[in-house]
User: What shape does this take?
Amino acid sequence: MRLVKMLQAAAVVVVGMMAQPAMAEDDIGFSDQQTKRSVDIFTYGVGECAKVEKVYRIDCLRQTYSQTVRVISKASVYWEAEVALTRVNRGLYSFVRANTDSNLGRERVNGGRIKAITEASLPQATQLYMAGADKAAEVMRSGSSIEVRYFAPIADAIEASKALLQ
Assistant: This one.
């Protein structure tokens, strides 16, 4: 029995080593399609967030960033954009956890369930989002010329999303 488990473990290692080059070939580089997919996911999510009450929008935006990160992470060359989006996502996640309005239930939006924040925390949430969105857009516009070419549409979408909270 122990020999069988050792052989299974060795087989997993060998298959993983052999599959790794194939996985690297599947990694998407910079492309207009990858950028468009990321922008489309983000703008669709923001559009869905516009349909909910303001107290739900921060968590909805957090969810939108999370969904965009999943799409953008398919291409390792987009890692700087991924990190910038992840930072905003994590900041919003922490804020929502600390300021959830327990008197309001969750809403189902864009394939997920979102929480409301307290009415009193809305100004602080808006300020946090604006700063995070600005920083993410700045990061995406400060890379190499090729990065800026592919990241600029994502940065534009992020900056446009700020209108949702104004």
